[in-house]
Amino acid sequence: MGTLYLVRHGQASFGADDYDQLSALGQRQSLRLGQYWAERGLRFDAVLTGTLRRHAQTWAGIADGARLDAQALSWPGLNEYDSEAVVRAVLPHGRDAMLGDPHTPEGYRAHFRLLRDGLAQWMAGTVSPQGMPSYTDFVRGVTSALDHVRTQHHGQKVLIVSSGGPIATAVGHVLGLSPEATIDLNMRIRNSAVTEFQFSPKRHTLLTYNTLPHLDGNLYADWMTYA
């Protein structure tokens, strides 16, 4: 049996013009995860990441903290959906003001209410967010990475660095969850959180979900973030 570790990227730049960039805290979260694994002697036989900047930056922080020199395999199917496109697909025409200021509690809540609605409709095939694949194709991109790990790395330790959407989709696929339950998982996954699968050539099995063992203790009490 092998073990697959799926890590959501560190805190990105929610509300900024360019979300796809780790914040200073996101960089520290990633470095700390690598240090935590180094303290326990964990090393990886293979590493896969999405192709987004925040994925590469998170892997760089992990590798730095753990003193790893493995080359990561870029896997586009591990990229996140476009949350702004999802929101705008269900936003009434000309009602951008409904989004509000994402830095305020009201604006933050409004964004995620619309995101939840948009995800549900995208999954059901009732909306097609601009520039995005169908949900069926999105799932296929995620499961292609799982299949690669399962068939090519039996008995090994593998790391995937991705985003909340693909990781929740992977868990939903393995557990056979409904779209609504998968969305709930997606909304709760934390930055730099670790999810573990055990795998054989035939299947993946969930071991843990959304854990932050590297941030345990008072020193890291304010390092837990969701966006």
From TrEMBL:
Keywords, in A-Z order: Hydrolase
GO MF term (any one): hydrolase activity
Entries under InterPro entries matching the protein: His_Pase_superF_clade-1, His_PPase_superfam, Mito_Ser/Thr_phosphatase
Protein name in the entry: Phosphoglycerate mutase
Species whose genome carries this gene: Hydrogenophaga taeniospiralis CCUG 15921
Lineage per the UniProt record: Bacteria, Pseudomonadati, Pseudomonadota, Betaproteobacteria, Burkholderiales
